[in-house]
TrEMBL record, chain A:
Domain (ABC transporter): residue spans on this chain: 6-236
Protein encoded by which gene: potA
GO cellular component: ATP-binding cassette (ABC) transporter complex
GO terms for MF: ABC-type putrescine transporter activity; ATP binding; ATP hydrolysis activity
Function: Part of the ABC transporter complex PotABCD involved in spermidine/putrescine import. Responsible for energy coupling to the transport system.
Signal peptide: none
Designated name of the protein: Spermidine/putrescine import ATP-binding protein PotA
EC number: 7.6.2.11
Subunit structure: The complex is composed of two ATP-binding proteins (PotA), two transmembrane proteins (PotB and PotC) and a solute-binding protein (PotD).
TrEMBL record, chain B:
Transmembrane stretches, start-end: 7-33, 69-91, 98-122, 150-170, 201-224, 251-271
Protein name: Spermidine/putrescine transport system permease protein
Species in which this protein is naturally found: Alteribacillus iranensis
Entry keywords, A to Z: Cell membrane, Membrane, Transmembrane, Transmembrane helix, Transport
Example of a GO biological process term: transmembrane transport
Boundaries of every ABC transmembrane type-1 domain copy: 65-270
Membrane topology: Multi-pass membrane protein
Length: 366, 284
């Protein structure tokens, strides 16, 4: 038990022999926008469906608003879902779709009309009340699906990749609208997506899932800046990985080698000399220069292999003497004079690199 | 543009020839014959006459027409009431689905005529059903089933039920499960989900089933021939007798055309009636 809005305790779900979700613990606070993020098949949708009631957990308990719900059917749970495919009833008008949940609750007709109007106003679709869903665009259908769910004033709104079918521009716009709507209503949102950018943009808190388990739970910047596992570092954003053995002496003078060059390691990650590690450094954290400065140890010499203009930044792909590659993002004007084949010196603040042991025996939980 | 249209017609020509040869020409022949003069014993004199229609509208034939529509309608309704739950059950039978579908279709492998004979044995006064009921003490005297409208309805329902089950099954099978989840999510229990979502969304299948059952049922003649020994008449019997017994081709043609018109009108009414309630239903 806990006083959170949604609480999952050691919840597992098996499909056949395989665990889709394995012993996860999750607590979601009232009014929170929580995102379940992960690649397809990571168990995020199964987790959402267990909260909605469409799947029954094989083990563990689920509480919603203080009530234990594993044995409660979906139609008796105080949650509503926005489905990936919208699932608007094709034989009903927009207004009838939105009114469906209220009708099931046997609310008086006049009150239903009023609430339906208010919900459609909220998503700016009042003018489309009498249309059939098929006559609306994808974005409009999406809004109807949202109105149909929130009109019931659920304790928790579950959203299963609701923007997946929309084009990029509309998706970005809807991300902001959804976030705004959530803040206006003060409703608890549980949002499932495989799009890390979407997760970072919208969430109060992100839960990264992989192979049915939680890899990391935290604030968007924590997840991005301080990933706790290699998987998280790899999945969220772009990064460079280098494998090596930690060397060096006592205290803060640890280093590893990339090629034949030494790289300092910040010792925040409780590692010791002799350990095999991965070092992860984000492309935008790498500085480039053609003339090495004074602290020569921190500069790594590389050869430019490719220069790719991608709009906001220019992507530099360079290689070490042993063939390992590294990608750096630099402002366009700093890269104008660079050419393929040029020598380049790169450096980064050791604090910005993240270190993972090569043999991750146990998952770290927040 | 012009060449494209020519090419299109060329590609359509097999269909057009087929329709002309097997639909338009025969119907046109029936229509023409129905307005010719009867010279007796199947003779056709190509002189305009409406005598066949006067005869067709006389009470005997009109009664057979209404009787056919009524019985076929009743049988179709029974097929809907039996067929829908049946189809629903098959669609949700998981791994047994294919086996059950096969069982629905197996009767087609035997001629309807032969299958109807077995109903004679079952519904006889000394037949299996009466014997069973008497043994169980439910009745003391055998109930006469053969030679009654009841037997006709049984025969029609038995004969055409698969035509109702299959299209309904197809529409339930194709129904997107996420609609049902959405209904459940919005607080509808299974019963309300069925009546508010499943039934309306599978109605096109029911309509197809109605047409596929009603149309053959209204004109069939073997059922009445066998199960009532020809004592009760459906329009199919009347047409058959007109051609083969009375040798009155004009009368047979006229009643055939009237039947076609009635069936068409019934379908149009059905379509109009349902398309008002359900915009999404695509007909057949």
């Amino acid at each position: 038990m806990s006083d959170n809005m949604v609480y999952l305790e050691e919840v597992s779900k098996k499909f056949g022999e395989n665990y889709a979700v394995h012993k996860i613990n999750l607590d979601i606070k009232e009014g929170e926008f929580l995102t379940l993020l992960g690649p397809s098949g990571c168990g995020k949708t199964t987790t959402l469906r267990m909260i909605a009631g469409f799947e029954k957990p094989d083990e563990g308990n689920i509480w919603i608003d203080g009530k234990q719900v594993e044995k409660i059917e979906p139609y008796n749970r105080e949650v509503n879902t926005v489905f990936q495919s919208y699932s608007l009833f094709p034989h009903m008008t927009v207004a009838e779709n939105v009114a469906f949940g209220l009708k099931m609750k046997k609310i008086p007709k006049s009150e239903i009309d009023e609430q339906v109007h208010r919900a459609l106003d909220l998503v700016q679709l009042r003018a489309f009340s009498d249309r059939k869903p098929k006559k609306l665009s994808g974005g409009q259908q999406q809004r109807v699906a949202i109105a149909r769910a929130i009109v019931n004033n659920p304790r928790v709104l579950l959203l299963d990749e609701p923007l997946g079918a929309l084009d990029l521009k509309l998706r970005k716009q809807m991300q902001l609208e959804l976030k705004q709507l959530q803040q206006e209503l003060g409703m608890t949102f549980i949002y499932v997506t495989h799009d890390q950018e979407e997760a970072l943009t919208m969430s109060d808190r992100i839960v990264v899932m992989n192979q049915g388990q939680i890899e990391q739970m935290g604030l968007p910047d924590e997840i991005y800046e301080r990933p706790k596992t290699k998987f998280v570092a790899d999945f969220i954003g772009e990064t460079n990985f280098f494998e090596g053995t930690v060397k060096g002496g006592e205290g803060s003078n640890l280093y590893m080698s990339i090629g034949e060059q030494k790289v300092s390691i910040h010792n925040h990650s409780n590692i010791e000399s002799g350990e095999d590690i991965y070092l992860s450094i984000r492309p935008e954290r790498i500085h480039i220069t053609q003339e090495p400065g004074n602290k020569s140890q921190d500069y790594l010499k590389v050869k430019i292999q490719d220069k790719i203009y991608i709009g906001s930044v220019t992507k530099i792909v360079a290689s070490f003497s042993d063939g390992q590659k590294i990608t750096a993002h630099s402002p366009y004007d700093k890269t104008l004079h660079l050419q393929e084949g040029d020598n380049l010196y790169i450096y980064w603040n050791p604090e910005n690199a993240v270190i993972f042991p090569v043999h991750e025996k146990e998952k770290i939980e927040a | 543009m012009v060449r494209n249209i020519k090419a299109a017609y060329l590609m359509l020509s097999p269909t057009i020839i087929w329709l002309l040869a097997f639909l338009v020409v025969p119907v046109a022949m029936i229509a023409i014959i129905s307005f010719t003069t009867n010279t007796g014993f199947g003779g056709i004199l190509y002189e305009f006459s409406t005598e066949a229609y006067t005869l067709a509208f006389s009470s005997l034939y009109a009664q057979a027409i209404w009787q056919s529509l009524w019985w076929a309608g009743l049988a179709t309704l029974s097929c809907v009431l039996i067929g829908y739950p049946f189809a629903y059950f098959i669609a949700h039978a998981g791994k047994w689905k294919n086996l059950l579908l096969l069982l629905v279709m197996i009767p087609f492998w035997t001629n309807l005529l032969i299958r109807l004979y077995s109903w004679i044995i079952l519904m006889n006064n000394q037949g299996a059903i009466n014997n069973l009921l008497i043994k169980l003490g439910i009745i003391s005297e055998p109930i006469t089933m053969l030679y009654t409208p009841f037997a006709v309805i049984i025969g029609l329902v038995y004969g055409f039920l698969p035509f109702m089950i299959l299209p309904i099954y197809a529409s339930i099978e194709q129904l997107n499960q996420s609609y049902l989840e959405a209904a459940e999510d919005l607080g509808a229990n299974p019963v309300r989900t069925f009546f508010r979502v499943t039934l309306p969304l599978t109605f096109p299948g029911v309509l197809s089933g109605i047409v596929m059952t009603f149309v053959p049922a209204v004109s069939v003649f073997v059922v009445t021939d066998l199960l009532t020994g020809g004592r009760l008449l459906m329009i199919g019997n009347v047409i058959k007798d007109a051609f083969l017994v009375e040798m009155n081709w004009q009368l047979g043609s006229a009643i055939s055309l009237l039947l076609m018109a009635l069936v068409l009108i019934s379908i149009v009414i059905l379509m109009k009636f349902t398309s008002k309630n359900n915009e999404t239903s695509s007909f057949m």
